[in-house]
Amino acid sequence: MIAGVLRSPIKWIIANFVAWLIGILWITPFIGIFMTSIRPFSEVVNGWWNIKPFTITFDNYFKALFNPMFSLLKGFINSFIIAVPSTLIPIFLAALAAYAFARFSFPIKNYLFMTLLFLMAVPQQMTIIPIFFMLNSMHLLNTYIGLILVHSSWGIPWITFFLKNYFSLLPIELEEAARVDGASYRQIFFKIVLPVALPGIISAAVLQFAWVWNDFFFALMLIFDSDKMVITQMLPRLKGQYQVDWGLLSSGSILAMIVPVMVYALFNKYYIGGFRGWAMKR
Are the beta carbons of 234 and 70 closer than 8 angstroms? Predict the structure, then answer.
């Protein structure tokens, strides 16, 4: 189908026009946010597209990072404290579970896997009340540990599903050869399977980290103290009480999205390789 489009000049022009149109429509809001973040409030109050006058300033970024009430710098630190363990814990546990589902047979295996698929479909709003009372009874409400446990438990089902399919596509001959040489299951998993499956694991880690970093709902419901709030909680509180400072909000939005974008750019090669390997057929 794609080859047919490329062979026809008219179809090629139409396809490029549509692609460019979609790209421009998609990137325009980001251009607007960036332009608003680097200009004084007086210049963008009538629209960021008005470029006369055009004054570049980084005051908004400084005010967002060092806001006296809701400092985004503190939000960065809190988000890292929660996002890093909330990525490493479910990746490790889900990798163990996924390998067991991919390579071993045991009673009610299919029923357990179907349960994981069901848990993936449960919306957050349906579980927040029991989670709230459970953390409260465990004295983990309004704590980093409580939120980390919630994010970790929420990530385990989908990561298990993702890695189970990835492990199933790995050549089993490597594991059989290692088993013949006397390697234990633990050695096979940590020294053979994990290094080979590294692109898939990094893909899952990038997605989990981005999801935790961008989460607002769980943080809003489970964290109350301003000094413990993550960056997504602090960002809407920068709008002000009597007027909305769009420059401040825009600079805060840019700062909040920098980290997941940098993580994706840093691990892009492994990220794409992981999805390519996940989609391959043996």
Answer: yes
